[in-house]
């Protein structure tokens, strides 16, 4: 778990509200560290504190950053209230992480691929957007694609990768209870993306602005917040990661989205990708991902997190203990 930077980046220091709020968080971090050094167990509190600080650093827009700052100021200097705000954010990150890791992907098989999956394949040139490898089943079924790919093409099995988890729009039936699957919509709305529920409701979760064609292993890394895309130009991104192994293979790669039909086959949304990147950076910089992995491993060992959501009450209990 990395200590917060002593200052904000120069471009953020120009805003006195950002600096003042960040100094509040630095004071909270210092107070917690003193207590930890004295023998108290405050790992959860420190993660919550650093989530708030890193949200100021990595918020995807100034509007989102201002919302975080306003939340900090509303605590009136009360460290406990600040921690509660950070813990709420931690809970949301936990739910994003758990939701994405539990997804069952669409297999790379033309016969079973739905129309939205096929549209993404067409838009992305039947290739993984990160590696450029051709989708193997597409090569097998399309002689024209084989000719385009040349004599020795790189290929693999691809899946439809959602930026916002497909479970965002799913309603789980659990006895007489109907509960919306927990997703990044909550974080999106708290960051000022107030139309996200409408934009991604129901089948609209599969809209082309929210999906990409990606190889199986990269899909897992993207869903697990192990890599993300940072915009460097119009519809152009670079791959970023904090993982050394992932960085050796994919770090810094350029990803450029193109389409011959902007209205019918639009490219992925820069706003959605920016929010995914912000969540990933905050989670890693705050030490949240490692802690979440530990919780998930423990939960798997006692076999309480059923894939069908039937153990949702146990998950909620675990989560309350984490953020308490």
Observed structural traits:
two-stranded parallel ribbon, 2 domains, 324 residues, HNH nuclease domain-containing protein, HNH_nuc, mainly alpha, three-stranded antiparallel β-sheet, single chain
Total count of domains: 2
Mean of pLDDT: 83
Q: How many distinct beta strands?
A: 9
Distance between the termini: 19 Å
Which radius of gyration do the C-alpha atoms yield?
21 Å
Strand content: 5-15%
In which range does the helix fraction lie?
A: 40-55%
Order of helices and strands: HHHHHHEHHEEEEHHEHEEHEHHH
Strand count, sense and barrel status of the largest sheet are: 3 strands, antiparallel
In the sheet with the most strands, the strands line up as 7-8-9
Shape: elongated
What assembly state would you assign to the polypeptide chains in this entry? single chain
Q: Helices and strands: which structural class?
A: mainly alpha
Question: Which regions are unreliable across 5 or more consecutive residues at pLDDT < 50?
Answer: 169-183
**Count of individual helical segments:** 15
Pfam family, one: HNH_2
Protein name: HNH nuclease domain-containing protein
InterPro entries: HNH_nuc (IPR003615)
């Amino acid at each position: 778990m990395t200590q917060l930077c002593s200052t904000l980046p120069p471009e953020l220091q120009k805003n006195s509200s950002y600096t003042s709020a960040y100094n509040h968080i630095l004071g909270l971090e210092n107070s917690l560290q003193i207590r930890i050094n004295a023998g108290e167990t405050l790992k959860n509190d420190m993660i919550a504190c650093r989530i708030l600080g890193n949200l100021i650093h990595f918020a995807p827009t100034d509007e989102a950053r201002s919302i975080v700052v306003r939340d900090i100021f509303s605590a009136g200097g009360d460290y406990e209230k600040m921690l509660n705000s950070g813990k709420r954010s931690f809970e949301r990150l936990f739910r994003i992480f758990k939701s994405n890791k539990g997804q069952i992907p669409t297999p790379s098989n033309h016969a079973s691929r739905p129309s939205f999956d096929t549209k993404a394949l067409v838009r992305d040139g039947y290739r993984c957007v990160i590696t450029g490898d051709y989708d193997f089943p597409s090569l097998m079924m399309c002689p024209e694609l084989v000719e385009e790919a040349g004599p020795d093409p790189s290929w693999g099995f691809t899946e439809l990768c959602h930026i916002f988890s497909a479970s965002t729009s799913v309603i789980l039936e659990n006895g007489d209870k109907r509960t919306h699957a927990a997703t990044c919509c909550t974080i999106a709305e708290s960051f000022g993306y107030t139309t996200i529920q409408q934009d991604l409701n129901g089948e609209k979760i599969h809209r082309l602005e929210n999906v990409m064609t990606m190889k199986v292993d990269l899909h897992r890394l993207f869903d697990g917040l192990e890599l993300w895309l940072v915009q460097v130009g119009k519809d152009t991104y670079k791959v970023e990661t904090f993982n050394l192994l992932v960085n050796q293979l994919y770090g810094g790669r350029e990803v450029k989205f193109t389409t011959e039909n902007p209205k019918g086959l639009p490219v992925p949304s820069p706003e959605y990708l920016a929010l995914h990147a912000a969540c990933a950076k905050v989670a890693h910089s705050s030490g949240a991902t490692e802690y979440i992995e530990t919780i998930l491993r423990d939960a798997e060992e006692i076999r309480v997190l059923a894939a069908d959501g039937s153990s949702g009450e146990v998950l909620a209990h675990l989560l309350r203990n984490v953020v308490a």
